Amino acid sequence: MSPSHKLCMIPGPIEFHEDVLQAMATPATSHVAPNFIPALGESIELLRKVLFTSGQPFIIAGSGTLGWDMTACNLVEAGDDVLVCNSGYFGDRFGECLETYGAKVTHLRVPIGESPQLAAVAAALKSKKFKAITITHVDTSTGVLSDIKGIAEVVKAESPETLVVVDGVCSVGSEEIRMDAWGIDVVVTASQKALGAPPGLCVMGVSERAIGVFKNRKTPVPNYYANWNRWLPIMNAYEARKPSYFATPAVQNIFALNVSLKQIVAQGIEKRFALHKEASAKAKKVIHDLGLKLVPTSLDHAANGMSAVYYPEGIAATDLLPKLAAHGIVAAGGLHVEIAPKYFRIGHMGISVTEPERGHLDATLNALKASLAECGYKGAL
Ligand code: PMP
Fold first, then answer.
1. Quick check: CB of 10 below 6 Å from ligand 1?
2. What would the pLDDT profile of 37-91 be if each residue is shown by its tens digit?
3. Which terminus has fewer CB within 10 Å in the chain: N or C?
4. In which residues is substrate bound (predicted)?
């Protein structure tokens, strides 16, 4: 690693393992080469383990946003009602994407820092028939963790036909998700967060039930690239270790994801959940001891893979973030439009927490203390 490299401690992209980086440096390889086919085929199988599902994974060149398009254009038909549990910026954006395909979106908004309440979800589901409900598992703009298990239970009780869609871009690999056991139909994610690979891949898990809904749709899929009719045969072929082609897969990104997924499964997913909880508790304790306030209003619904923190009185982004960078730490500014200049975000996902011996989190928290002191902050240390 270059000595000038600053630790990328934002809520994605995250730091990569050396073996993941190495996988990106493979020579030009055909997308139907005998060494590439099993890398994609095995990644599809590994993803089922990571998501605890027997459903259909998709790994497609793109980013998390493509997962929204895939959900909206394949599962929703123009005029369908969709309920968006909106805990920040990414709920607004997912809603916009759904509307692009003609969905009638109802936002169930919560105040900044809160997570959607089960009773409010139940009441909304009683008001009309929704084709799908979307939940941002961790809204990266607020660091709020939503109770996807509880919400899926409410859906099952109130409106069992409604598809449960989870935006897990900032949660897969860092927060507990059990797709089949919890009754989740779609998980959308991307390669660059807790899955520990570079940006470039849209990664999804789709339940058999949702694939059935897709196959029974009445209108054609209003999208070319994102159409599952084109991608299902490709995913099936690679899983059967057979070459196939619709659009060129991102060969090196998939090599890298394959290495990372193997590491995740080898370490054990339960252990991974526990390590993210531990790292988060450590970060949140330091933040609390420094006298700083989190954006989430309670630790009960604060994400384990990131922390969103208000600046103390008198300190601004322009003061703190460059000081952190001078200490070798890249943190992120605010994203939620209503409070953007008032808070910053730190990511604690992937190798930075699953290999604590690397010292990434300690270095970040120490840099935070030092930088605040340099800003003139007198808070408790
Ligand atoms: N949803 C959430 C919760 C996200 O954090 C992000 C990215 N930060 C996205 C969706 C969009 O993903 P991408 O930037 O990979 O397109």
1. no
2. 999 999 999 999 999 999 999 999 999 999 999 999 999 999 999 999 999 999 9
3. N
4. 345
Picking from 248, 266, 284, the residue at the C-terminal end of a domain is: 266
- Residue 64 CB–ligand 1 contact under 6 Å: yes
* d(CA 269, ligand 1 centre) in Å: 22
Shared domain check, 253 and 368: no
Residue with CA at minimum distance from ligand 1 atom 4: 169
Angle among Cα 278, 202, 221 to the nearest 5 degrees reads 135
Q: Which atom of ligand 1 is nearest to the CA of 192?
A: 15
**Host domain of residue 101:** 20-266
Query: Closest Cα to atom 6, ligand 1: which residue?
Result: 169
- Helix/strand/coil for 121: helix
CB of 239 closer than 6 angstroms to any ligand 1 atom: no
Handedness of CA 237, 239, 243, 245 (dihedral sign): positive
Using an 8 Å Cβ cutoff, are 168 and 188 in contact? yes
User: For the segment 332-348, what is each residue's pLDDT rounded down to a tens digit?
Assistant: 999 999 999 999 999 99
φ, ψ for residue 264, nearest 5 deg:
-60, -45
Looking up residue 293, the CATH number of its domain turns out to be 3.90.1150.10
- Same domain, yes or no: 175 and 80: yes
Same domain, 109 and 188: yes
CATH assignment of the domain containing 217: 3.40.640.10
- Give distance in angstroms: CA of 67 to centre of ligand 1: 9
pLDDT in tens, 207-236: 999 999 999 999 999 999 999 999 999 999
Q: Is 345 annotated as a binding residue?
A: yes
Q: Is the dihedral of CA 18, 24, 29, 33 positive or negative?
A: positive
- Res. 23: pLDDT tops 80: yes
Q: Is the CB of 89 under 6 A from ligand 1?
A: no
65 lines ligand 1 (CB under 6 A): yes
140 lines ligand 1 (CB under 6 A): yes
Nearest to 307 by CA among 227, 365, 220: 365
Tens digits of per-residue pLDDT, 137-154?
999 999 999 999 999 999
**Rounded-to-integer distance, Cα 72 and Cα 35, Å:** 34
Distance 56 CA to ligand 1 centre (A): 21
